[in-house]
Amino acid sequence: MEWYGEERAELKERLEAARTTTLDRGSRIMAYHRLLGDHRKLLSAWEAKKNYATKFLLLAKNRDRMQSDSPDLPEFGGGRSDVQIAEDILKRTQ
Question: Which of 3, 28, 52, 72 is the most exposed place for a label (fewest CB within 10 A)?
């Protein structure tokens, strides 16, 4: 989170410098263009980090659930044959 704030602060400083520095029109537009590209890269990196964090938290939650004393595993009926199981599956899908 600090990384994102620092990068945004750097972009803000660069934007203020581009606004206040005496530049000809073309140079100022190119500076804005580079800043916009850098901002888009920062946003995509931030979104990727958020997605990875969400995925990691989900994996950790699933790991904890699997390591618990009573995991939510399906119980298998001992007295049913393969044919009966297949028929039950077909009935549910229809």
Answer: 72
